[in-house]
Amino acid sequence: MNRPITTLFMLMSVDGKISTGAADDLDVDRDFPQIPGVREGLHQYYELEQTTDLWTLNSGRVQAKIGANAKEAPRKTPLSYVIIDNSHLNERGIRYFCALSQKFVLITSNAGHPAFSIEADNLHIIYQKELSLNAALAELKSAHGCERITIQTGGTLNGLFLREKLFDYADIVVAPVLIGGRDTSTLIDGASLVSQSELSKLGVLKLRECAVLENSYLRLRYEVVH
User: Fold this and answer.
1) Which residues of 53-77 are buried (b: 16+ CB within 10 A; e: fewer)?
2) Which residue, among 173, 195, 200, 190, has the nearest Cα to 38 in the 3D structure?
3) Pairwise CA distance, residues 114 & 124, whole Å
4) Cβ atoms of residues 144 and 103 within 8 Å
5) Cα–Cα distance between 143 and 104 in angstroms, integer?
6) What is the pLDDT of residues 74-84, one digit of tens each?
7) Quick check: 13 and 163 in contact, CB under 8 A?
8) CA–CA separation, 174 vs 42, rounded Å?
9) CA-CA distance, 162 to 222, in Å (whole number)?
10) Do the beta carbons of residue 173 and residue 48 sit within 8 Å?
11) What is the pTM of this model?
12) Is the Cβ–Cβ distance between 81 and 59 less than 8 Å?
């Protein structure tokens, strides 16, 4: 395999939502701790998150939404971060991830991204005129030694990974809540299929583990078979 092994690791509601609403000020990380019946078991997701791969991939939009552009410089962690971003992270957000990461790799199609003006030993930029997830993953493996990576992006990017057959595993924590809303992000968003000829683009899964966690949470672990 000329790319890293990928695992989708996400927290979602029973109806598949990964946000509490369609507005950027609504977010599960901020909102779930305030909801009785949901907050009590939330710690399990974050504890499991600590056991995932040493490489993690996210989107600039998600990171901007949870405040990366305004946070103070953090302590360095053992993790290496990969962020796909064209316009959501500013210079402070880039410096935040440089401080946080062992390696920080930005994937962008924006030749004017503020990251190009920053000098940091651990900052690496993969510039693509048009986003190619497969090519970016291959470069992460060949140039940066990434063998396994956890994917934690928003629904639209998750949809691109799915359609390009770039998920190997899915590890989903289900919170005991129904959210609803047709415009609220789900685990997999993006363009819908429009014909039976596209059914090969589905991600067929084989269940590897179903664990009942505390406080009515579930953990579902799948292998993507095709």
Assistant:
1) bebbbbbbbbbbbeebbebeeeeee
2) 173
3) 13
4) yes
5) 13
6) 999 999 999 99
7) no
8) 10
9) 14
10) yes
11) 0.95
12) no
